[in-house]
Design a protein that fits this description.
- α7 links the parallel β10 (229-232) and β11 (264-269).
- The longest helix has 21 residues, at 439-459.
- The chain has helices at 19-33, 77-93, 112-117, 131-134, 150-168, 178-187, 243-255, 276-291, 333-341, 380-391, 395-413, 415-430, 439-459; strands at residues 7-12, 37-42, 60-63, 102-106, 122-127, 139-140, 143-144, 172-175, 196-197, 229-232, 264-269, 296-299, 325-329, 345-349.
- The chain is of the alpha/beta class and 460 residues long.
- A 7-stranded parallel sheet has the order 3-2-1-4-5-8-9.
């Protein structure tokens, strides 16, 4: 019996380039392929800083421009995030707005009780990771820690309350891994359910090697090299710990034979000059690279609207052919595939600790150590030793590891598996029937709106 075809609205705060955004895009594509109607609503969408499918018409994206900034002098991000999503929610609930069978909300749960109460529509919430644990590095190496000053912690209290209380109102809660589901249960004590796990899918077809001719297009040239290449794929954020890859690479160069010192490390990642963390992290990585007497090049695709940051003076030796480190800002899907499938690319370095799923999957559940890769402590000396062994691997062993990894990825993390699991969760959510709203929920919604209104009034 064919499943019911749903009309689904995705609600996402900022449709840029990152693991959460990739999941939304892939989930929407998978559900469309299964015959469902999908719309994506967002408070930010820059055609020069997004995934191709969100700008080329493959997906219907509704960019609702908010009247609020992202922050004031780099502060109050979460307050304005709530305000921006409430503005987006008002658009969804406005008279004449399209009606949907179910809402798929992720990252920010502020809108959940409003969509249920006023939209009379079931809501599924997808938890990438609790925001209360992401704020200011509150969750580091598997432990929670105090976040800044007493004033900062007092500021976070109502924000954390809003997150937990509104998440609790979702009809279905999904998590991107068993790791995240476990963290969620421990740190959201008032929510009695354990999130249902739906892994982000890997679109295998998108990782095929791009066709390359002798006259390569400009966007592909930074990715072409015959030098042994180490690849570190992350957004430019401090929590991604890309410094570990640079430190390990610097130590590796001291260990390997002179004939192998031509090795190159490539660090592609999403970069947004609006985000202080992105700017500070890139500058820090450039300084670290220079401190190890390594040369570097920073490349920004000519199609990007994101300006190149102000950089320290480049070494005269730092050209695409001779640099030790290549930083590739806002890479395209074709560039990513070219790097991942290039014969010269020896290994993908995954540097974040205790992180949930993203474009690069979590180390907790995806790899099998020694069978599809290596799990090592996040120490540069340990990594350098392992990388030295990786560079020396016989080609037959390298091929065996790669095939093991492909088989595991297809079996557990394929796009088709994600789409089916996502569809099943959405159908189960809709099958709960009409939304019934207890009186206390109305009171909570009114209180929530009042708190946000007062905060915004104080700030504007």
């Amino acid at each position: 019996m064919a499943s019911k075809k749903l009309k689904i609205a995705f609600v996402h705060p900022d449709l840029g380039i990152g693991g959460a955004e990739r999941l939304i895009v892939d989930a929407a594509l998978g559900l469309q392929k299964l015959g469902h109607s999908v719309d994506i609503y967002t408070s930010h969408h820059d055609p020069g800083h997004c995934f191709e499918e969100t700008r080329d018409g493959t997906l219907r994206v509704h960019y609702v421009v908010p009247p609020f900034p992202r922050a004031i002098q780099g502060k109050l991000h979460i307050v304005f995030a709530h305000a921006r999503q409430l503005h987006l929610t008002l658009h969804l609930l406005a008279p004449g707005a399209p009606k949907y069978d179910v809402y798929f909300v992720d990252q920010l749960s502020t809108c959940v009780p409003l969509l249920r109460t006023f939209g009379r529509t079931r809501v599924l919430f997808y938890c990438h990771f609790p925001d209360k644990l992401l704020a200011d590095g509150a969750y580091v190496e598997g432990r929670t820690r105090p976040r800044g000053s007493l004033l900062k912690r007092i500021y976070r209290l109502p924000m954390d309350f809003v997150e937990e209380t509104t998440t609790k109102q979702a009809d279905t809660i999904l998590a991107n891994s068993r790791f995240t589901a476990g963290v969620f249960r421990r740190h959201m004590p008032s929510i009695r359910v354990t999130p249902r796990v739906v892994y982000p899918g890997i679109n295998i077809e998108m990782y095929k090697p791009p066709k390359i001719s002798q006259n390569d297009p400009t966007w592909l040239k930074p990715c072409r090299t015959d030098r042994p290449t180490l690849l570190s794929l992350n957004r430019f954020e401090a929590k991604k710990n890309a410094a570990l890859a640079i430190e390990a690479f610097a130590q590796l160069r001291k260990q390997i034979a002179q004939s192998s010192r031509s090795a190159l490390i490539v660090s592609p990642g999403g970069y947004d000059p609006r985000l202080k963390d992105n700017v500070d992290t890139l500058e820090s990585l450039l300084s670290l690279t220079t401190s190890h007497v390594l040369t570097y090049v920073v490349v920004t695709p000519s199609t990007s609207s994101v300006p190149l940051p102000t950089l320290p003076a480049l070494s005269t030796a730092a050209t695409n052919g001779s640099a030790n480190v290549l930083f590739l800002l806002n890479f395209s899907s074709a560039q990513r595939s070219a790097l991942l499938t290039a014969p010269s690319t020896l290994v993908l370095l995954y540097t974040p600790a205790n992180e949930h799923f993203g474009i690069v999957p979590s180390v907790v559940e995806s790899p099998e150590s020694e069978k599809t890769g290596w799990l090592r402590r996040p120490e540069p000396s340990v990594w350098a030793e392992t990388l030295s062994a990786v560079i020396s691997l016989p080609q037959a062993e390298r091929v065996r590891l790669a095939e093991n990894a492909r088989r595991r990825a297809r079996a557990r993390f394929g796009m088709e598996a994600m789409a089916r699991d996502m569809e099943a969760a959405l159908l189960d959510t809709v099958a709960l029937g009409p939304v019934g709203t207890p009186a206390w929920v109305w009171a909570m919604v009114a209180a929530l709106l009042g708190v946000v209104a007062v905060l915004v009034q104080m700030l504007l």
